[in-house]
Design goal:
385 residues; alpha+beta; six-stranded mixed β-sheet; four-stranded antiparallel β-sheet; 11 helices; 25% strand; binds zinc ion
Length: 385
């Protein structure tokens, strides 16, 4: 993307806007938006909507009953001539409960901006707004309609937003996800494991541990044997992990327990492995004679395979190189809304948001001088996809 008519290039222009970007981030962080507090998320959503209206975007509020409302901002600089669309994804909710701001206020120190949600991912929301400003300032208009979708429940599994995301993704040529970048060098995420939760419930038969243990069927023992079995399915080098994370069962030590359960976190790098793993779980049979098993759950976020990000990553890398930035890539175990768009076969690039550290921790912060660079990168992608 070359600036014409002696105008500043987007990165030059954005560097001159660094203080304004930081100030807007302060306003965003100041509006707390815990996933579980609808009123708070809605209040923040109104601020986000206001910023998009200011930029001439057509804003639609997608009302939700229990969760915060989602905000859809459509920016269509060429009017209705744009036939195809690009989807930019982000979430407005944070993991921090209301009141966190009092002990963790927005503050600037040594080139970093601190505060709840600054990194995950209010910084990303700021980056999107200024990317649009930069394109307007440079007179470089995307040929496609750009749909910015800001959701309210990513941190709690995207229950109300998944269908909306998938609907938009189906008519999009690409999905750009403004989740935090990885590491101090700001790597983008070109792959994510799929993940899910599987529950194994064992039913045995109760008996007295001293008088007639032979009449009992020990459900805890059954669960323990099943855990040993499924733990053998771990293949870390292939990206398959099976982690028994919660176990419950039994009543008293002198009673053969009738009930026990385990909840297992499952992750896989490949969609085929995910499906195979799910089948294996649902085919589990009892090991102890007379025991019964029930299997519930499965994968809820499919993997984002690298091939789905490869083209966009190559483009982003070239754009970054023009700014003298070496843009690295990373494969991560955690999931995001990018998993949904990738699963539909839509080219997806994740981790395009802020550069920082300490997501979900009291130290959460972003690197201020990376804000203009990330906005320039997004602007470049929007105008060339
Ligand atoms: Zn996030």
């Amino acid at each position: 993307m070359k600036a014409s008519n002696g105008k500043l290039s987007p990165i030059e222009w954005l560097r001159s806007r660094e203080a304004a970007m930081t100030q807007l981030l302060g306003e965003f962080v100041g509006a707390e938006s815990s996933s579980l507090e609808k009123a708070a998320v809605d209040r923040f959503g109104k601020i986000v909507a206001r910023e998009w209206r200011r930029r001439g975007a057509e804003v639609t509020i997608l009302p939700q009953r229990e969760r915060g409302d989602h905000v859809r901002a459509e920016w269509n600089p060429l009017g209705n001539r744009a036939k195809r669309q690009v989807l930019v994804l982000g979430h407005m909710d944070t993991v921090y409960e209301l009141g966190t701001l009092a002990r963790m206020p927005f503050r600037l120190s040594k080139g970093r901006a601190y505060g709840p949600g600054a990194f995950d991912m209010k910084g990303g929301l700021v980056i999107a707004l200024f990317a649009v400003d930069a394109l307007v300032a440079a007179g470089v208009m995307p040929e496609k309609r750009i749909v910015f979708l800001w959701t309210s429940d990513e941190e709690i599994g995207s229950g109300t937003s998944q269908a909306v995301i998938e609907r938009e993704a189906r008519s999009s040529d690409a999905a750009l996800v403004l989740e935090p970048a990885l590491g101090p060098d700001g790597r983008v995420k070109t792959g994510r494991k799929g993940l899910g939760e599987i529950e194994i419930i064992a039913k045995g038969r109760t008996a007295h541990a001293g008088l007639n243990p032979e009449d009992g069927i020990n459900a805890i023992e059954e669960i323990a044997l099943q855990i040993a079995r499924v733990s053998g399915w771990n293949q870390p080098r292939r990206g398959i992990t099976v982690n028994a994370g919660v176990v419950e069962g039994g009543t008293r030590t002198n009673v053969v327990p009738e009930h026990a359960r385990v909840v297992i976190d499952v992750r896989a790098t490949r969609a085929a492995d995910m499906r195979a793993l799910e089948r294996k779980f649902h085919a589990l049979r009892p090991i102890l004679r007379g025991a019964k098993l029930e299997i519930r759950g499965g994968f809820n976020r499919p993997p984002m395979e690298r091939k789905i990000a490869a083209g966009l990553y190559a483009k982003a890398r070239t754009l970054a190189k023009e700014m003298d930035i070496n843009l690295g890539e990373a494969f991560v175990g955690g999931g995001s809304d990018g998993n949904f768009t990738a699963a539909l076969g839509v080219p997806t690039l994740d981790g395009l948001g802020a550069v920082g550290e300490g997501a979900h921790s009291p130290d959460e912060n972003i690197l201020i001088r990376a804000l203009p660079e990330r906005a320039a990168l997004l602007a470049g992608l929007l105008s060339t996809i």
